[in-house]
Design brief:
Layout lengths: L13 H8 L4 E4 L6 H15 L7 E5 L2 H11 L5 H4 L2 E5 H12 L10 E2 L2 H8 L4 H15 L1 E2 L4 H11 L1 H10 L2 E4 L7 H11 L3 E6 L16 H9 L2 E4 L12 H7 L13 E6 L4 H20 L6 E5 L2 H11 L3 E3 L2 E3 L5 E2 L4 H15 L6 H17 L4 H18 L7 H16 L5 H14 L3 H10 L10 H13 L5 H14 L9 E5 L8 E7 L16 H11 L2 E10 L4 H6 L1
Parallel strand pairs: 1-7, 1-8, 2-3, 2-6, 4-5, 6-7, 9-16, 10-14, 10-15, 13-14, 15-16
Antiparallel strand pairs: 11-12
Length: 581
């Protein structure tokens, strides 16, 4: 900002001035790009400069690390470094964990709590009913001091509700709390906010039309109204203002989708591309190149950010696979495109644990113990799928692991193939280059004569944590330099996973990011490519017209783009045809 006071750089209407000048609880609503985050950051700046005492900070809470990064990017133009040091921007998870690490001993028998990573929670929960799993999580927390991510908010809320001293401590530290995307809070998160509201001012930011997480337990369609009623506060409505892509027709078209029966023409900033059967992979290459070219010309950026999103996990993986290999179009070879991919991580992380275990035990461990440990890891990977077939297969592998520990390795195809993989690693040796050794181990599993091992290799391809310069690669290099092997690789991977989940999940380093449409929430890109096929379209569970859930999901997805959108669909009737007919 060129001005000493960043408020001078914005056009502040009367209600924005009142938000800055007044005290007390407030509810600020508005559509995508309407300026809710901007006014919240200006409010935080005012409070830091005018009312905070020594040691106090403003807290800004949101759902995802992607939303946190968007807020921090916005903050760079509003908050000086000195002021930013007094504004904590956190996810619900990280803030709840802060409460539990400092005061969790009040509600658990253990002084120090430990996190059960999400993938391990999935393994523990497999085969249990919801009530049984809830009871088991309670037992783990109280008796063993182990806490799942699902328990973060309810346990933190319970703690603040029961302990006046803990509540006073956090309210004194954070006299002003800004809550982003408030329409998506569940009952436990809402309870946490209510506990803090007794002594801290709460400003809720939200938009009912961006409510796309109603499938999550405890999310209410009336949450914004509940906020206003509970706190008896004033509501500030920014309506349909749009500052994200004001020069484009994207926001207007997206907002009009929410009104069934509207006559809608696609603006120039949204193009539709159709593919014939068997041509999806080629069309994806062409679509992302079109999006990049348009975004570059319209934004003036050399490396505009592109998101590609589909509604189903299956299609997300298919998109990633298509971009990972070359394609041919009109006699021209289209190179593979580096990208980040965000898909269901449980089985991917557990498959990666298998590889880390094999690399870790490549020397110095008796073969039967190597086999037993690796089989246990494969069993975890299968069990996390939580269906009967995989649970039965998981139990079978655990039984084989037990026999290996007894020195009676069974002559099954899976055990024999795993032993062959380990023998090949012993014969060929490891190089000390973590990425090279990881890929070599994965390829051996892919060639193994056992479906369980092939599945490990297939899933591990999607691991984002092992790339040049990453935390896990540096840790593996350190192990090799210190001891000439990868003993401890599994522990290093676990630490990197935990850090990624709690602190910096879903960081994007590539120009192209591939994800499901719900993951677009809270992000912004120069261009967005939305993908559907005849088997996996954009339609939500709202089968009957007017398809309100589908319309909201598409509205949110479209408005993640600043400059341009490409919609890729099969050559038959697509979702937009159904919505606009």
């Amino acid at each position: 900002m060129s001005s000493a006071n960043p408020e001078d750089e914005f056009t502040l209407c009367e209600q924005r001035k009142r938000i800055l000048d007044d005290d007390g609880h407030m509810l600020v609503v508005g559509g995508p790009g309407s300026g809710k985050t901007t006014i919240a950051l200006l409010k935080a700046r005012r409070r830091v400069l005018e009312q905070l005492s020594a040691g106090q900070k403003v807290l800004f809470v949101s759902f995802s690390n992607s939303a946190i990064r968007r807020i921090m990017e916005s903050a760079g133009g509003i908050l000086t470094d000195e002021i930013a040091d007094r504004v904590d921007i956190k996810t619900y998870h990280s803030f709840a964990w802060e409460i539990l690490t400092s005061h969790g001993y009040l509600t658990s028998s253990r002084r120090r709590l430990k996190i059960i990573p999400a993938q391990d929670a999935a393994v523990r929960a497999a085969g249990l009913s919801k009530d049984d799993w809830r009871a088991e999580q309670d037992r783990l927390y109280v008796e063993e001091g182990l806490v799942t991510y699902d328990q973060f908010a309810p346990r933190a809320a319970e703690l603040l509700q029961r302990s006046a001293a803990a509540r006073a401590c956090f309210c004194a530290a954070y006299p002003l709390i800004l809550v982003d995307e408030f329409q998506d809070t569940d009952e436990e998160q809402w309870a946490l906010v209510q506990a803090l509201s007794e002594q801290s001012e709460i400003i809720g930011l939200g938009d009912a039309e961006q409510r796309i997480f109603e499938w999550r337990p405890g999310v209410s369609e009336t949450r914004l109204e509940e906020f206003g009623n509970a706190f008896e506060c004033e509501r500030f409505d920014f309506a349909n203002e749009n500052n994200r892509s004001p020069a484009t027709g994207i926001a207007g078209f997206a907002r009009s989708l929410l009104s069934p029966g509207s006559e809608l023409d696609f603006p120039d900033e949204i193009v539709r591309q159709r593919f014939r059967p068997g041509r999806l992979a080629v069309q994806l290459h062409l679509a992302v190149r079109k999006a990049f070219k348009e975004a570059k010309e319209r934004s003036g950026k050399d490396r505009p950010k592109i998101a590609m999103a589909a509604r189903s996990k299956r299609l997300v993986r298919q998109v990633s696979d298509a971009l990972s290999v070359k394609a041919s179009a009109n006699g021209r070879v289209l190179k593979a495109l580096p990208h980040d991919v965000f898909i269901d991580q449980h089985q991917i992380l557990l498959a990666s644990r298998v590889i880390a275990n094999i690399m870790s035990n490549a020397s110095g461990v008796p073969r039967n113990e190597q086999l037993a440990e690796a089989l246990d890891r494969v069993a975890d990977m299968l069990r996390s799928a939580a269906n009967k077939t995989n649970i039965v297969a998981s139990d079978r592998l655990r039984n084989w692991a037990g026999k290996c520990r007894e020195g009676k390795a069974p002559k099954t195809k899976c055990v024999s193939a795993l032993a062959t993989v380990m023998a090949q690693i012993d014969e060929e040796g490891l190089t000390g280059s973590p990425t090279q050794d990881w890929i070599a181990t994965r390829r051996l599993l892919a060639k193994a004569d056992a479906s369980e091992l092939k599945k490990v290799a297939d899933l591990a391809r999607y691991l984002r944590l092992l790339r040049r310069g990453s935390v896990i690669e540096q840790a593996l290099i350190g192990l090799w330099v210190a001891q000439g092997n990868y003993q401890g690789a599994e522990a290093a991977l676990e630490q990197a996973i935990l850090q990624d989940q709690l602190v910096d999940s879903q960081r994007e380093s590539a120009t192209i990011s591939v994800m499901n449409m719900h993951q677009l929430k809270g992000r912004e890109y120069d261009a967005v490519v939305l993908v559907e096929d005849q088997y996996n379209n954009f339609m939500a569970q709202d089968k009957a017209p007017p398809h309100a859930d589908t319309r909201r999901l598409l509205q949110v997805s479209l408005t993640r783009a600043r400059e341009f959108v490409v919609v890729v669909s099969n050559a038959g009737d697509d979702t937009f045809d159904q919505l606009l007919s």
